[in-house]
Each structure stands twice: as C-alpha cells, then as structure tokens.
Amino acid sequence: MFSIFNPIKSVSTEELAEALQRNSKLLDVRTPGEYRSGHIRKSINLPLNKVSDYKDDSKPVYIICQSGMRSKKAAKVLRKKGIEAINVRGGMNQWRGKQVTAQ
C-alpha cells in the first residue's frame, strides 16, 4: 500500500515503454486536440480537468502529458482517491516510441 505522504512515483519514458509491454494502463491528460495530434497506442485520453472522474483502481495507472507537469498534478488527484498513479517524467516531449494520430 502507498501513503499519501510519499512523493508521487515517477518513471522515465523508457520505463513506461517496458510497462506498456505488460499491458499497463496509460492515461493521457492532454487536451483532445493535443491527443489527436499524436499519442501512444492504447492510451486513454482523459484531460486533466476530468481526472477526478476516473474510477478504475484495479491496477496502477501511468499518466502522461506533454512535459510532465499536468501528469504530476493528475497523479496527485488520483492518489487522493486511493488510486496508484505513476507520473511519466518529461511526457510526450521525451517519448521516442511510436505515436498514432487520430484521423
């Protein structure tokens, strides 16, 4: 179990790539327009202003944004709800893997 007094756990984009190979859940908290312009396959777009509506606490969730700032805020919100949330440092700016775009 994690404590709300511990700092938010963060991982690199390389560590995220490894986690995604294990079918980990990834929330992209950027705006829908940012998400459509390029996102990680199987990520779920949930803009920062809607993060408090997130309900699934069945496993840890990784959170990404453009630079890592919004995702860290989102991780704090989710952790207050008892969800194990892991911030992705550097966000999409650091992601070197494949991206998909919405048509």
From TrEMBL:
It comes from the Bacteria. Pfam families: Rhodanese. Residues 20-100 form the Rhodanese domain. This is Rhodanese-like domain-containing protein. It comes from Salinicoccus siamensis.
